[in-house]
Amino acid sequence: MKKLITKIYENLASLRRKLYKAGILKTKRLEIPVISIGNLSFGGTGKTPVTIETAKYFKQKGLKPCVLSRGYKRKSKGIIIVSDGEKIFVDVKTAGDEPYLIAKAGIPVVVGENRYKAGLKALEEIKPDIFILDDGFQHYQLERDINILVIDATQPFWKDEPFPSGRLREPRSFNKYADAFVITKTFLLSEEEKKELLLHLNRYTKPFFVVKEEFNRLTDGNLEYNFDIMVNVDIGVFAGLGNNQQFFKYMLDCAKKCGFKIKYTKSFPDHYDYEDLKLNEDVDFWITTYKDFIKIPPEVRKKYNIFALIYDLKLPEDYFEYLEKKLYIRKGFKIPNSKVIP
């Protein structure tokens, strides 16, 4: 039965794509360049950190990027300006956790079910130079100049199946609509698995870029700490991500290296709102992700002594050179102080 439902789901996804390709369902274009960053699977690939770092790059170049997001599971409707890059205007429940996380990084963000209308509002009120779609791979209504597909190295699309048999939103073959791949989570692979991954990626006629990821800092919301504070203590870990097990596995590896004990693990659904969080109090402190941490009220963080693991992601220089060159070729969009010579 599951295989039948999977086939129906796959056919419907293919039909939707074909209707847009044929022009039966219409697409719209905004007047400035649009970069889409998304994935084929349901959550957990790291697309939002990639979005943040991409936006930061353009900001450092003297441009004003603006992220357009649906604001999945936000407690609001319609088009809302979350941040203009200087001030955050709404709370995390109104914005949605991922848009709020992006806004906390100092990036302008507008949420809306209709990304084209959200873009028009941004053009009027924020006046950006470039748009970045967070989780935009399946948002065909808005035309884009570059399509980036983020791939989780631990569960790449070629080893997965469409929903409900697997975690894919669309057929594997839809990777052909991406201009380039960005690869995350390689730190969770063995050396042999990394070699296998690179061999497979080289079979595709697309550029791919492997990110560098580090988790070596914690925060209580005010100060930052290194892992020394966890030596010889008992902790609990919890998360509400697309793939909680990856986070738990990493923390278990840290426990072995740093000499602390994980007494409890609690798994919550993706985008969990933490409105009534109950945790055991017989540990020294609890660790969660920053995405989860920002949704927890300060008094609850204090009660359970909750810290967030800080996720540092670095994209390679050739990724940004690729974006610059593509934008110039497709729209004649010249990046200030660009090293790229078209």
Structural summary, described in words:
- By secondary structure, this protein is of the alpha/beta class.
- It folds into 2 domains: 208 residues, P-loop containing nucleotide triphosphate hydrolases (Rossmann fold), CATH 3.40.50; 99 residues.
- Helices cover 32% and strands 22% of the residues.
- It contains 10 helices and 14 strands.
- The strands form 2 sheets. Strands 3-4-2-5-1-6-7-8 form an 8-stranded mixed sheet, sandwiched between helices.
- Helix 7 links the parallel strand 11 and strand 12.
- It starts with a helix and ends in an 11-residue tail after the last helix.
In short:
Helices cover 32% and strands 22% of the residues. The protein has helices at 2-21, 47-60, 92-95, 97-104, 115-125, 191-201, 244-258, 290-293, 298-304, 317-331; strands spanning 34-38, 65-69, 80-83, 109-111, 130-134, 146-152, 180-184, 208-210, 212-219, 224-225, 234-239, 261-267, 285-289, 306-314. The strands form 2 sheets. The chain has an 8-stranded mixed beta sheet, with helices on both faces. It has a 6-stranded mixed beta sheet with strand order 10-9-14-13-11-12.
